Amino acid sequence: MDTQWPRWEVFKQDAPGKPHQAVGSVHAADPEHALLTARNVFARRPQAVSMWVVRAEEVFSWTKEEIAQDPALRGESRPALGSRPTTYLVFRKTSHKRSMTFVDHVGEVEAYSPQGALREALARFSDAEGLVWWVVPAEKVYKSDPSQETVESWFDPAKEKTYKQQQYYATVSASRPKRRKEDEAFGEGCAHC
Amino acid sequence: MPGRYGVPTDPDYQERLAEFEARIRRGEKIEPGDWMPEEYRRQLIRMISQHAHSEVVGMLPEGAWITRAPTLKRKMILVAKVQDEAGHGQYLYHAAETLGISREAMLEALLSGKAKYSSIFNYPTLTWADIGTIGWLVDGAAIKNQTMLAQCSYGPYSRAMVRICAEETFHHKQGKEMVLLYAQGTPKQRAMAQDAINRWWWPALMMLGPHDKDSPNTEVLVRWGIKTKTNDQVRQEFINEHAPEILAAGLSIPDPELRYDEKSGNWLHGPINWDEFWQVVSGNGPMNKERLEARRRAHAEGAWVREALEAYAAKQKKAAVAV
Ligand SMILES: [Fe+2]
Ligand SMILES: [Fe+2]
């Protein structure tokens, strides 16, 4: 058996202005491959406008339980002499409700270590209790091309495939299934092809 | 992280177990990094990896019909459905990986024949009506199970299930629509639909697992919120929804003892042939050998793609270092 490719965590943004949300992971040989695979796995349905990927080992994660049990995490941040801070992206989960997404992107912090970034995040994003926190060095995150051309070619086809939506079959009933216009249109040959 | 997976010999096991079970009773999700019993982890890995393998192997019986779909519309629907099943396998392998098992180890278990997957995919798809019937009954049974698992106490499994359920509804509806159309079609179409229902009804009931009394894991799975319903409860839900719909379509169900019980409001079924179920699970179903061979062949024939992608990645890395 061959050795598996590295694992990449995937974040998806549903619409401009919404946060990128962790949706799962993929295995891929390089960042480009990871983004393409992420799109095929996690954006077969609308909505999506942007995706990020990061190597799983670049993600630093703490649950509320882990933070409670590690008093060192709540101390002061002490930068090493002469070191420069790094920008970290911060992600947080705040609810136990049923959901298909995990942690949401809430912002950035500057810190000298992942632990320092978590301390910063706990102080800065205190509007809601974090059940899980992720911090990720910003420079390790690879993003899908934001140009309109790429966004359209990556994410628009899913919108046209209406037969993947359950509403498309809303008229199905055991006693009298209704034939839709599209049935005929498709039967004759698809208008798009 | 020492002690993250607790075993009964740990000095603090009882105390932590009590906290863990209290969290589950409060409806909290357990997340990677949280303390959990090693047995909780083991049961989850077993269930999630089997579930992932089922999605992957499940592509085979339907994929075989893509080239023979009767219209372009049906072909596009089937391609999309099979793609979805591949995606479901990916979501689930991801969920299992959060428990510290590698994808490679899981694939190895599948290809070596060591791992189990759903018994249903070891039956052949003989006619095009099987494709509609699989959507209606097999995906229909899967949805009942997956809707229950979407409530699971383990966060990653629950999230995978919520995502899967949203997609499965399309699988179910397209199949139901197809069978209902054939049920109202020509005598030949009706006969084809009936034949498919006759062959898939019992395997669909079996795929929801042994009766509760023969399912030793159920008690602990329910206590830890991995499952929120038993096999028999899920099976009853499935029958209560599908039996009246099949009958209303003018089709029959191959169970002479099937009847509606006024008192309980349930459709009661006759005895299930569990010998057949255990035969199929232990590798003697009609298609076990072929399914495994198809997976192995796909893995071997894809080797050059994996090698090429790795070589490309190495080249990119080198170029990046040189700059
Ligand atoms: Fe599926
Ligand atoms: Fe499905």
Automatic annotation (TrEMBL), chain A:
Annotated InterPro entries: PaaB, PaaB_sf
Start and end residues of each stretch annotated as Disordered: 173-193
Stated name of the protein: 1,2-phenylacetyl-CoA epoxidase, subunit B
Designated gene of the protein: paaB
Automatic annotation (TrEMBL), chain B:
Keyword terms: Oxidoreductase
Secretion signal span: none
Taxonomic placement: Bacteria, Thermotogati, Deinococcota, Deinococci, Thermales
SUPFAM superfamilies tied to this protein: Ferritin-like
Gene Ontology molecular-function annotations: phenylacetyl-CoA 1,2-epoxidase activity
InterPro entries membership: Aromatic_CoA_ox/epox, Ferritin-like, Ferritin-like_SF, PaaA, PaaA_PaaC
GO biological process, one term: phenylacetate catabolic process
Protein name per its UniProtKB record: 1,2-phenylacetyl-CoA epoxidase, subunit A
Enzymatic class: oxidoreductase
EC number(s) on file: 1.14.13.149
Protein source organism: Meiothermus luteus
GO cellular component, one term: cytosol
Database matches in Pfam families: PaaA_PaaC (PF05138)
